[in-house]
Amino acid sequence: MLKRTGLAIAVMMVLAGGALAEEGGTATPLTAAQKLEKAASVAKATDKSLVIVEYTLQYDKGEAPRAAEVIQEERPLEVPGFLIEGNKVVTDSAQIHPRFIKGIAVRRYGSAAKSEPRVAAKVWGYPKEQWSVILQMDGELAGATAVKFEGGGGNKDAASSVVNLTGVDGDWAVRVTSAGGELTLVRGKQQIVTENRGLVVDATGAGVGILPSFGPVMADGSWKGDPLKWPMISAEEMAKTLADLETKANRGIVRVMLNFRSPRNVGPERFRSPESAATVQYRLGVMVDDRTILVLSEMKPPVTARLERIKVLGTTGEDGVEAKFKGSLSDYGAFVAELEKPVTGAGMAMSKAKMEDLAWRALPTLDLFLQGEKRVCYAQPMRIDGFQLGWRRHLYPEVSESRSSGGKGLFVFDREGALMALPVTMRRKASMEERYSGRNQPLTTAMTQLAEAIADLPANCDKDNQPLSEEQENRIAWVGIEMQGLNAELARANNVSDQTNDGETGALITYVYPDSPAGKAGVEAGWILLRIEAEGQPKPIEVHVDPDPMADRGFPWDQLDRAQESNFDDIFRYYSPWPRANSGVVRTVTELGFGKHYTAEFFHDAKVDKKTFTVVEGPAYFDNAPKYKDAKLGLTVKDLTYEVQRYMQKKTDDPGVIVGKIELGSRASKAGIKPFEVITHVNDQPVMNVKDFEKLMAGQDEVRLSVKRMTKGRIVKVKLAEAGATQPAMPSAE
Questions:
Q1: Number of other CB atoms surrounding residue 131 within 10 Å
Q2: CA dist 333 → 242, 423, 546, 607 (Å)
Q3: CA angle 80, 83, 88 (to 5 degrees)
Q4: 330 in helix, strand or coil?
Q5: What are 635's strand-pairing partners?
Q6: Are 406 and 367 in contact (CB under 8 A)?
Q7: What is the residue-averaged pLDDT of the chain?
Q8: Alpha-carbon Rg of the chain, whole angstroms?
Q9: Alpha-carbon gap, residue 338 to 330, rounded angstroms
Q10: Do 145 and 44 touch, CB atoms closer than 8 A?
């Protein structure tokens, strides 16, 4: 019936007594000519009952339906059907949302498609068990004859045939078959496995039953009989069910506003994902009960760390209800929050039904998603057309429309209106994060899976993925190595070509901090870090180090005097004179979770050496170092951290704070202070940290700053009493 990618239009078969075996097995076999004559007779007897259903499709709000190519080709989507009453037609379920259907018409099967009369039609009913829809035409179709289902199943003493229409060279052709199938047990129920689907008739052309193109064929013969006697949901009943469901979902599946602090660390990697730096996000949330909400948002720890406020909108008016963060699910892209006060009646009923028991059946669904701040909801009946075995042997349903542009967030309900499945991502583990992996797409996931996780939240939450203070938000793991990426030549020279795919993975260790975990484990410069094996993650993590342009060219210290003041923010944002402490390997180890164990695999001295580590929090680094902003000076300084001290070749007891930001038009800018310079003294007093700087600047009308740019020093005098008053920088004797 309905043609789909990878599946042919249905062909015909012989069915008798509910089992696939040809009647009259003891009779004399038919000759080829007799078989052909029999098929021709059946085709002639059913010819006037075969119809073509035409769906005229349209775009909606710029979105395209499945099979949108027919719109561009200015023709309708055609599917075969059978006339089963004066104005009733049975055809396959199109699985296309009504908003994409401009109109439905029915015409007789025939070669003169353009001139054949058409009769408008609409959905009359949805069979509960069969992958079909019953259409009702506005009038009778001239020249067509309905199939007669005599005695509820044709002549049982005559051999049966299967009739259907199939596409041949851009046209429709009648096809008749008399073939059998196989009997199989599916979850304890006998089913017939066959590719032959369509109108089953006896030798006289009387109807025995109709087998839709998709769905199980039960071996008990329940498929037989007049389709109008199938268990049915009328179009009016379905419309009411969907309307009631939308009303419930308006309170139970709602918008959630998330407010975040602005990120302190805005390195280049942050700009690969605009959402990671957003301060306001809107997400969907499912009210599990009157007070608990499941927020469908897959946030990584650095983003969750900045979360400051959760507001549930749409449950009790425009003002919404404040909620408190409870925990991020370890395995799913969602977190749980608790409303500060219960909202009576907002909780969605959760289905306990097994999805596999409801496959192929007409189910109410909501295609529900957010566009900007607006909540968009489209309701329609849908059918689960199969399952895929996935994570930890869970079954994930396949729904045709959810694979089109119309299925952005499919919520599936059972027939009682209880939530059965919802769109949620599987949280990627560090070992599964590919270098250039795309957006993590949601899977239609059984609510029972999520309900189990929510019921035991402490055991199913990631304690390292939670809101943190501003001081803690950029904490990272402490490994204690600096690295450079390999290439084919380096891999060959170090005899690790076979271990690193010719240098595409792996990293050469260039420095080891003595008191770091790596230093204490005996790791040395010159070793090759190959991969990381994480606790509880089956896939090893291959090490990648992205090229650092500063490592090859060096930071342009000599060009800072020519840098425009308007570019200072970009310099701080995009450049780092020293290797970034928050490198890809460090971020990966951080994502494993503090307290977790991992094994690092090294290559040195012609052998592989494994070292076991525990993920521990590292010391402050430039991006999260203690800082102080002097408003009069228009300057933010930071403590000298371990990687900065190494780059600047400073000892831990050397004075200095580093410039971390310069305000546009500030006194500091006019005085010629540049990004990443080090201020060692204020009024000839040594500055050991930002607290010293704050004390020495307090109450001053004029200051003398000792400034160093790498090894070159100078004195900068700045008047603070009058706006913008400065004295030119003077050379230092250093």
A1: 23
A2: 27, 10, 27, 40
A3: 110
A4: coil
A5: 630, 662
A6: yes
A7: 86
A8: 35
A9: 18
A10: no
| Cα–Cα dist 210/212, whole Å | 6
Q: In angstroms, how far is CA 123 from the centroid of its own chain?
A: 33
Give 524's contacts (C-beta < 8 A, 6+ positions apart): 509, 512, 604
pLDDT band at 2 (very low <50, low <70, confident <90, very high): very low
Q: Is 567 exposed, middle or buried (0-12, 13-18, 19+ CB in 10 A)?
A: exposed
Q: How far is 256 from 320, CA to CA, in rounded Å?
A: 9
Dist CA 3 CA 523 (whole Å): 61
Q: Which amino acid is at 126?
A: Y
- Return the structure tokens found at 719: 């008047």
For 625, the enclosing helix (H) or strand (E) is none
What the block records as the tokens of 161 is: 């045939």
Place of tokens 């730096």: 277
Kindly state the tokens that stand for 36: 């052909």
Locate tokens 């948002």: which residue? 297
Name residue, tokens 């963060």.
325
Q: Per residue in 654-690, pLDDT tens?
A: 999 999 999 999 999 999 999 999 999 999 999 999 9
What Cα–Cα distance (Å) separates residue 610 from each residue in 392, 524, 589?
A: 29, 13, 16
Judge residue 10's burial from the number of C-beta atoms within 10 Å of its C-beta, 0-12 exposed, 13-18 middle, 19 or more buried: buried
pLDDT digits (tens, 9 = 90+) for 421-479: 999 999 887 766 655 455 778 999 999 999 999 999 999 999 999 999 988 888 999 99
